[in-house]
Amino acid sequence: MVLTILMRATRQQWPARTHWRAITLLSVLTVVAPFVLFNGAGLVLPSGYSAVLNATAPLFGVVAGAMFAQERLTMRKLVGCAVGLGGVALLVRLGPVEPDWRVVLAVLACVTASASYGFGAILMKRATMAHQPLPASAAVHIAGALVLLLPAAVAAPSVVVRTDALIALAVLGTFTSGFMYLISMRLMREIPASAATSSAFLIPMFGVTWGGLFLGEPFTAGMIPGVALVLLACALVTGFNPFRLFAQGMR
């Protein structure tokens, strides 16, 4: 709704009908699958866990880039992927949540969602070459709404409508989905897909912080090795070096 209003205000045109199949696939990878999987995992895992696992998206983005011949998969990147998997395993074993089959399934759901983001980033990059960011973003979310329409209708009788939940949905839809997706599409036109997904490095810090402040979720010392390995893996895979960026900024 937000993006459609922006489109009407700026008088931009919808993508041609022939492009909607590709847009629907992009929507499934970057909207439908991640939202459903992270929400499902959120019934079991603390938000801090989901935030850390979300940070693995750049790993999958680089792997997807190599598969589609857009980036080279070097030994350093392969080592980074292995380190990332080790970090996820440590997080599950040493964190405050007792590992059981429900936790394992929730972790797999988060990793699958991150993989979906990573592979979807390649399609996002291609979409920005064919469409303006705003129409493409609006079309992706409309396609996602249509894909989820039937499952939502089936689940509707069991939904308990609460004011705080509706407010949360409005905030998520307006800012973390609508505006942020548009910003991501604009970035994709200027930088590689793997670089655009590198913002996921910041998610663990904010996710763990907000989870502790607003949800009372614990952050134990056992989580630190897992979080550190996931971030190291992302740095290895993407070549991200915060110290080099800091030095460049100082110059």
Low confidence ranges: 245-250
Strand-residue fraction? under 5%
What is the radius of gyration computed over CA atoms, rounded to a whole number of angstroms?
Answer: 19 Å
Number of helices: 12
What is the count of β-strands? 0
Principal-axes shape call? globular
Helix-and-strand structural type? mainly alpha
Q: How many separate structural domains?
A: 1
The average pLDDT is 81
Q: Biggest sheet, in brief?
A: none
How far apart, in Å, are the first and last alpha carbons? 44 Å
Estimate percent helicity.
over 70%
Order of helices and strands: HHHHHHHHHHHH
In short:
76% of the residues lie in helices and 0% in strands. The protein has twelve helices and no strands.
What does this structure look like?
It is globular and about 50 Å long. Helices cover about 75% and strands about 0% of the residues. Helix 1 runs antiparallel to helix 7, helix 2 packs across helix 7 and helix 4 crosses helix 6. The chain has one domain. The chain is mainly alpha-helical. The longest helix is centred in the middle third of the chain and has 30 residues. The chain contains twelve helices and no strands.
Could you list some keywords that capture this structure?
mainly alpha, 12 helices, disordered C terminus, single chain, globular, 251 residues
